[in-house]
Amino acid sequence: MSLTVTMNPMRGLVLILAGLLAACSQNAPTPQFHADDNPRLLSEWGQLGIVGAELQTGAGVVTYDLNTPLFTDYALKLRTIWMPEGVSADYRENDVLDFPVGTVITKTFYYASAGGPDRVSRGDGHALVTSDGHLDVDAVQLIETRILVRRESGWAALPYRWNEDQTEAVLLRYGDVIPLQMIDADGSETGFNYVMPDVNQCASCHAPDSNTRILSPIGPKPRHLNRDFDYPDGTRNQLEHLTAIGYLTGAPQADSAPRNADWADINASLEARARAYLDANCSHCHSPVGPADTSGLNLEPDIAHGPALGICKLPIAAGSGTGDRRHDIVPGAPDDSILLFRLDNVQPDEMMPEVGRSTIHTEGVELIRAWIESLPGDCN
Fold this sequence. Notes:
The termini are far apart. The chain folds into two domains: 10-255, no CATH class; 262-374, no CATH class. The chain has seven helices and 16 strands. Strands 3, 4, 6, 7, 9, 10, 11, 12 and 13 form a nine-stranded mixed β-sheet that branches. A three-stranded antiparallel β-sheet has the order 1-2-8, with no helix packed on it. Strand 1 (48-51) and strand 2 (54-57) form a beta hairpin. It is α+β, with helices and mostly antiparallel strands.
């Protein structure tokens, strides 16, 4: 882990400019690292704060996005990273960036408001921010903000629930169930329960190594971060931006780093889009060391077509989770494939992922359906 002082002079300049801009806003948040205590209020972290009618980031807090985000009941997500001055993350090619002690990562889940306290519009998983990088809280319904903080003892996960007035979020260790009405583009409504995880449930996704069970971020990997982002001062590749401000060391040029496809980019190949979707939604469990390693299914993006990827692979365990299907993936036959059955499902003992959603991602299911249909061969 790198705890060395960054050699890039741009870090100081960027943080000074960010501080000057923040000073122009009354009550602008000031980032803090809490090495031991777990503050009751989100505002005590100073990563995000309500200023006027906007959710604003603190000085030096960097907003980022992923090529293909994890699906969470069509929620929009505002993601941020902050590090104390004098430290930076080390680049790791096929793993999460090696963040130093003091790093605070936040992810705020929200929806575009459709009128009323529990009526929301479907989102695509990306943030909906103003031209200056802030979030107009009058136009959204804030649900929760999850914090991952890197301490000397390792990562800690803390979930904060936003109040009805959207002025503050409060630490809620035991999670929550929030009834919502989702409004589709055609005006139809669907009721669902948004499930905010408790502290222990965070480990179901954020402990990607079943041998150690150590908490870790799962999103900030080079292949997810390697994309352009619209910063307040212009568009720039995220890996290059993090390097320029001193938050990242050792990264290659963006065109030499791995890059996942955007699952919704119709200009990308069907194979690349489907593999990126399975990577973002499934591979933190379905990997050789993940919590689902006993399944024998590996959904990481570099796995070749074959039984490890699920093609013509028999399930390790039978039961309702198979839907009476014989193979994980049957080329050309999505309706005979266990993988599609589990994605197109909300029954607790049948759906995948097992946590993190209460609704079916219709567009994601259709993508995987089309991909399976395109696969050559059969399982006879």
